[in-house]
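Internal ticket - ligand job 397, adenosine-5'-triphosphate:
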Amino acid sequence: MGPHPAVAAIRLAVRRVLHDILIELNRTTSGADDATGATGTPFATGTLAATGTPSAAGPLAAAEVPGSVDQAPGRYSDQVPAQSAARAPHERTAPPVVLVACSGGADSMALASALAFEAPKLGIRAGGVTVDHGLQPGSDLRADEVVLRLRELGLDPVEAVAVTVGREGGPEAAARDARYAALDAAADRHGAAAILLGHTRDDQAETVLLGLARGSGIRSLSGMAAVSGADGRYRRPFLQLDRQTARKACMAQSLPVWDDPHNVDPAYTRSRLRHEGLPALEKALGKGVVEALARTAQLSRDDADALDAWASQAEASVRDATGLLECAKLYALPPAVRRRILRRAAIEAGAPAGSLFARHIEEVDRLITGWRGQGAINLPGRVVAQRQGGRLVIRQG
Ligand SMILES: Nc1ncnc2c1ncn2[C@@H]1O[C@H](COP(=O)(O)OP(=O)(O)OP(=O)(O)O)[C@@H](O)[C@H]1O
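stdout (structure tokens):
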């Protein structure tokens, strides 16, 4: 008898992503080998399949991770200096490492189980990282428990990383920033080819709705990418799967999962959306809403990419010999392309991308489309935009 349908679905999703990773790795390494004249298959698949599941190793020795400062075995601080992920020539045939970022919740536990099952068959070494945000009492113990569960699945290396969450951008954004910084550092430390994240189609639908409510254009409607981060290091195999499938897969495999109390805390916007907003929308519009929102994300991403490419090409044609933006030429462009050029110019001048909202760009745009002699526009990051002699000057004041 085959696996439970939910287990089959999560494994297939992970297998597809691992295949993509291997193809990309082989392409990169073959390119490098061509350049150096070396030969041979860079990453032979199936090398671990011969020996079965990788050993469920005990805690990593502190000596393996220079700079480790945390006392508990297997726990490391985010202060550990990053090592280069670049492979030395002699390491090229070592199995590539793929890590799962695991909170202990149903989505990422399902992901970890599928990675543990699929990776050895493809000659990939599967590991895991859990981040302790330190935001709840006992979070360190929970992180240790996640480490144990990941090891029980056969993942190796596995570690918990403690982070300090700041305040910038609000609690959710600050926790996310700290988490990704820790995951980046872990990927560098282990020379990981990729980190898998457990975002599901439901998370994607929520992200699209949050973008829609911000009113900031199709880029924010495009949600999360299946591949993102430096060198495409982050992968989201479950973006086409619903949350229920992940949960069912955990139940079918008797995997204990941890339900983050933040996920049901109405103090958090995403939690309200998950438990009140989306159910209300489904009630009003029908069951297919989540799927339709996820599809909107993909379509918006394609449109946003096309417009970004158009804006990149158009930008050179609207600058004069000194590099200043010419208002008449900007005026002739479609608004979506023009606003992209203006946004990029503001960021280049020093405006922080995260603080630059649609309303800022609209105001700058009015210097082009609604010119009546208005004064300089102040933008975040002490950047000032003003119109001077038919040119748009955007610089830090
Ligand atoms: N503390 C953490 N440590 C490691 N990875 C995390 C942590 N929190 C979140 N992640 C990663 O980010 C993904 C999305 O997390 P988020 O909390 O937004 O969603 P979720 O639906 O609650 O996921 P999960 O059920 O896996 O907790 C997770 O699936 C996991 O891959």
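Auto-summary: The chain has two domains: 5-285, 318-396. The first helix runs from residue 5 to 36.
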